[in-house]
Amino acid sequence: MKYDVVIIGSGFGGLVCAHLLSQTGRSVLVLERQVQPGGCIQSYRRHNNTFDTGLHYIGGLGEGQQLNKIFSHLGLMKLPWHRLDPDGFDLVTIAGQTYAFAEGYEQFVSRLADHFPQEREALRQYTEALQRVDNVDFGSNDAYRLFGISAYKYLTETFSDPLLINVLSGTALKMELRQESLPFFTFAHGNSSFIQSSWRLKGDGNLIVQSLTDDIRAHGGEIICRAEVEELIEKEGRIVAAKCRNGEIYEGNTFISDIYPAQTFEMIKESQVLRKLFRRRMSSMENTFGIFTASLLLKPETLPYFNHNKWVYRRPNVWTFYQDPGAVGGVMISCRVPETGNYTTQVDLLTPMPKQLFEKWSDTHIGHRGEAYEAMKRQMADECIALAETVIPGLHDMISQQYTSTPLTYRDYTLTPDGSAYGVRRDCRNLVITMLSPRTPIPNLLLTGQNLMLHGLEGVSMTALLTCSELLGKEYIKKIIN
To answer: Which of 55, 314, 381, 456 could in theory staple to 294 by disulfide, Cβ–Cβ 3.0 to 4.6 A?
Structure first.
């Protein structure tokens, strides 16, 4: 059988593309190398407990907000979404002082201006800039212009108080903070929707995966797991088939890759179209850092549920703490919504983990890394717990079990180079090299996923829409958004 569209990889971007395209009647096939679909939004089980890998909270799901429109079209608004505290959905603690992020742009400004009254006008200008970014057409010239502005430069030119800059950046562990390169568009887009409204899923990320895969199959689409693509076969300048490691070959009219771009083009062994310069550009792209996660299972009724995220930093060095030697200096604390009652049973602690911390084990695989690696993970977990205890006293004694993962864990499961958390590193100084379009030099090969313009569920949703617009037309996509 020859499919209209063959999608390589079943991360969130691949599944959204499969949903949109199968919904229009196209024959769609998704090929996934792992035993289950979902990529970084899937969940895993340990001793009858389910833990999330990458999903902790999302923004913009309120009525009329952008992600609400997209998720409604994808059938995801029927899931049990739980709204975080509007008076403080994120609490940022720096050097012992806590600052609340309130829902709604006006309230957001008002609450922070209580701490920084001299910065009230600058805060108002900042939220206006966030809203301008939200209203820019994704993929337009205006969007690219905002990608060319440094986030750190914008903040330092807008605000005079360095502490406020740290506070505003304190929830940005959901991206890689780099003073010299992070685009303002990435920073703004990664923060704005959460101010509109912030939500957790009551349950695990597999609810999203199951909903999308059920719909794809109901639309006639196919999803095949344990199907690792090892070659994309090109003939006369077009991809004609995907060859899997098990020998199966799948033909298609259009191919969409949801995996890392360099790996995509490495699969094309012989090409009349791809030039050496293009291949070198793909293989030389740098990646964002990965994340260390300590997933804690708590003793019954020891920690009341808190309806917000906690972000804790030892010092006001939010943009650079992960580069400093010594103990973990910053951590995000995410709390699982209870199935019943008022006590949580799970807490996740997350902190950046640069490559130099795990590089000596890069040639190893899961289960075969040795005692030194396990000791390193225990030490990092202890440091994260100690920092978390500054806002949750006694947390250590509440823990019944803990599970840890490093960027190497993500790498082995997702094949993401170095276990990168946010994909390719966007650089405001060099957009030509680091910004990728869904289009490729091969006319029937498209890209999607977090390695293009934006990461996160909202960013990847927008990227998937941009990818599908190449096949469905921009007007079809605009109807979904508007």
So the answer is: 381
Output the pLDDT for position 231.
96
Max CA separation in the chain (angstroms) = 66
- DSSP class of residue 287 equals B
Please say whether the beta carbons of 170 and 318 come within 8 A. yes
CA 407 to chain centre: 14
Q: Which two tokens stand for residue 179?
A: 């003073």
Tokens 């750190």 belong to residue? 152
Can you tell me the mean pLDDT for 183-192?
90
Only one residue has tokens 């390589």, namely 8
Query: Are 261 and 446 within 8 A, CB to CB?
Result: no
300-320 b/e with 16+ CB inside 10 Å = b?
eeebeebbbbbbbbbebbbbe
Residue with tokens 């005079």: 160
| pTM of the predicted structure, to 2 decimals | 0.93
Rounded-to-integer distance, Cα 415 and Cα 120, Å: 45
Q: Using the CB atoms, write b or e for 424-463: b if 16+ within 10 Å.
A: bbbbbeeeeebbbebebebebbbbbbbbbbbbbbbbbbbb
User: d(Cα 294, Cα 384) in Å, to the nearest integer?
Assistant: 8
Predicted local distance difference test score (pLDDT) of residue 426: 87
Cβ pair 262, 390 in contact under 8 A: no
Backbone Cα Rg of the chain: 22
Choice between 139 and 18, residue whose per-residue pLDDT is larger: 18
pLDDT tops 70 at residue 143: no
Split at pLDDT 50, 70, 90, the class of 141 is low
Give the angle subtended at the CA of 359 by the CAs of 354 and 363, to the nearest 5°.
140
Q: What is the DSSP string of 407-447?
A: HHHHHHHH--GGG-SS-B---TT-HHHH---SB-SSTTEEE
Report pLDDT for 16. 97
SS3 content of the chain, % helix, strand, coil (to 5): 40, 25, 40
The tokens for 266 are 């490495």
Neighbours of 166 (CB within 10 A): 21
